[in-house]
Every structure is written in structure tokens, then in C-alpha cells.
Amino acid sequence: MTLAPGGRNCCTLLVLAICPNPTIDRLVILDELRPGTVERARENRAYPAGKSVSAARGSLANGARPQVLVLLLTDGAGWYLDTLVAEGMDVAVHSCPGRVRESIIVLEDDGRVTVLNGTGAPVDAEAWDAFLDGAVARIRPGDWVVCSGSFPPGVAPEALSGLVAAIAGAGGRLALDTGPAWMPAALTGPAMPALVTPNLAEAEAILAEGVTVEHTWVGADALERAAAAASGLRARGIDSVVVTAGSAGLAWSTEGADGVLPGLPVDVRNPIGAGDAFMGGLVARLEQGAEFADAARWGMATSCAAIEQWSPGGADAGRVAHFRSLITA
Ligand SMILES: Nc1ncnc2c1ncn2[C@@H]1O[C@H](COP(=O)(O)OP(=O)(O)OP(=O)(O)O)[C@@H](O)[C@H]1O
Ligand SMILES: [Mg+2]
């Protein structure tokens, strides 16, 4: 059932962001977290989230007109939807019974971040198929389709090959960023994502097969390893790969070209959604006709602008332009 129409205009530039596992990000900001004690937060913030939503925010900051299709549980949906629409986001909802999940993000003054991801209600095969049908119905050949993050309980990794095939069958170009628990199932072919953008730890786990990781680990050789991982993933038959490496920057590889971008210094407020903001900015610029190398620069500028503010993936267009001006060719 579609609650918010979000109908698309046949002529508008559009990035479709499909969000299968939305969450409300509840930010708790304090000086120091001491587990096992009673604390008082200095500040609380809440944002409608889910990693595809963060990517859509990154696209919006780059002049694209993203539409978010969200598989939203009914209980708590009102606030989620109203807040996202008030941001200026075009949202369509496929509704399922249950309560919207919530994630607690504790941000301490020394920069340490603790994330407690919530779990949503199980989604059955019928609801998943209907959600996917809704996505396919919105795709025009050549459109970018962004999908980032986890999948709800009830959606097994095997469903990923069906998702990739359905989007490819509709002519969509899928930009996929999901963890090592799901990504391998998306790369079994014959249809493949057009673009994947894992972080370094995820990329290395996907290539190693069977290893799961939860955080980015950045060492002195991070960009070298990111470049190796990007070319290793491209060898699996993916057109374009970017491997991000947190503050170290990123490496990219596409048909006939590759490169690295060292990270920029950023005064970080909320680092959650950095990779998604990157992907949203990259895809928006590709959709506008930028060369991959230049689109990657805009993507990095978007991630920098996103992490210096609170909203996951949200970025001010002026700040994106500022960071873009700091990146030399
Ligand atoms: N601390 C930081 N300082 C500067 N730039 C950063 C920092 N963290 C992230 N970035 C920028 O954002 C990009 C993506 O970050 P990262 O590799 O952490 O993504 P991620 O782990 O996928 O994040 P998420 O999954 O939360 O979206 C990096 O390539 C870099 O350009
Ligand atoms: Mg990520």
C-alpha cells in the first residue's frame, strides 16, 4: 500500500533510493559514556534514517531530485514520514505491520561513537516482493537506483540476487552498498550492480568471503589496500567500485580508469552516514554527466559536508562546494 504518493514526473532528473530497513536515528550527545552508570545527555536529536535515506540526502545536496521508497512499519511511521517530507524529500511508502525500528547513536566529546542498531519486525516474502515490484515500477531505463544498508528480518541474503536482477531487468543502474552478510549474494550474477561503494573493512571481508566485520579500520596503508580491494571487486564483474577508508579517503576503479583521493581534514560532528552521503553525491553527479573521477571528488566533498553536521548524510550544498574546492585534480 502506498501512503504518500511521491509520483514521479516523467521528465525530472531522479535518483531512486530504496530503503528496505528504515530506522529512527536517536543521537545522544554527551561528554563521556560510562556504561553501567546513570548519565544525563547534553543534547538529544532524532532523524528519520536508514542508509538509503542518508544517500538520498547526499544526492539532494548535489542538485538531484531523489525519491525515497521506504519499506516502513506502520507504528511510528507518522513522525518518520512527516519529518522526512518537511526536509524537502520526495517520499513514497510501502507499508507493513510493526513498529519502526530505532537506533541509538552515542556521540562523545572525544569523538568516540557507539551505535546500537535496533531490529525491526519481520517482513514476509509477499511484502518484500510487493516492495520490490513498487521499486521496479518507478524505474526508467538508465535511472540510478541507490540501495544502502541492511535488510529487515525475514529477508534472507539470497533475496539480494533477485533484487539485483529485478533492477537490472527494468534497465536501472544499481548503486549498492550493503555489508558482507548480504553483498556476496548480490554478486552471484548474471545481473550485477553497476556500482558498489563498501568501506575498506567491508570490501576486504567481501573479498575474503565468510568474514563479517562491523567497523572501518584505518591504517597507514589504507589507500593502498582500498585500491587493491577496488580492483579485486571490479574483477568480479562490477562496472565501477569505490572503496572508502574513513579519514584516510578512498580509492575508485571504473572502466579504463582508477584513482585515489586522500581524505580532507574535517571537524566531525556525526560520522554516521559518511559513506552513504558519498554514494548519494557520486550518483547525483554521474547522473548529471560528470566523469567518474570528478563525480568521486564531489562524492567525497559531500561526505565531508555531511559529517560536519548532525543529520545522517545531510549536507549543505554550499559546504559541499567548499570541500570540492579543496580537492585538487
Ligand atoms: N573522520 C573523517 N575525516 C575526514 N573525512 C572522513 C572521515 N570519515 C569519513 N570521511 C569521508 O567520508 C568517506 C566515507 O567514509 P567511511 O569510509 O567512514 O564510510 P562508511 O564506513 O561507509 O560510513 P557509513 O556506513 O556510516 O556511511 C571517506 O572516504 C572520507 O572521504
Ligand atoms: Mg557504509
Question: Which secondary structure elements does this structure contain, and how are they paired or packed?
Answer:
Blueprint (H helix, E strand, L loop, with lengths): L14 E5 L3 E8 L12 E7 L1 H10 L6 E9 L1 H10 L3 E10 L1 E8 L4 E4 L8 H14 L5 E5 L10 H11 L3 E5 L5 H4 L8 E2 L3 H9 L13 H13 L5 E5 L4 E6 L2 E6 L11 H14 L4 H16 L9 H10 L3
Parallel strand pairs: 1-4, 1-8, 2-6, 4-5, 8-9, 9-10, 10-11
Antiparallel strand pairs: 2-3, 6-7, 11-12, 12-13
The protein binds adenosine-5'-triphosphate and magnesium ion.
Summarize the structure.
The chain has 329 residues and is of the alpha/beta class. It is built from ten helices and 13 strands.
Heteromolecules bound: adenosine-5'-triphosphate, magnesium ion
Give helix % range.
25-40%
Architecture, according to CATH? 3-Layer(aba) Sandwich
- Computed over alpha carbons, the radius of gyration is 18 Å
Summarize the main sheet: 9 strands, mixed
Q: What number of domains?
A: 1
Strand content: 15-25%
Give me the strand/helix succession.
EEEHEHEEEHEHEHEHHEEEHHH
Distance between the termini: 47 Å
**Widest β-sheet, arrangement of strands:** 5-4-1-8-9-10-11-12-13
Sequence stretches where pLDDT stays below 50 over 5 or more residues: 1-11
Core attributes:
alpha/beta, UDP-N-acetylmuramoyl-L-alanine:D-glutamate ligase, 4-stranded mixed β-sheet, globular, disordered N terminus, binds adenosine-5'-triphosphate, binds magnesium ion
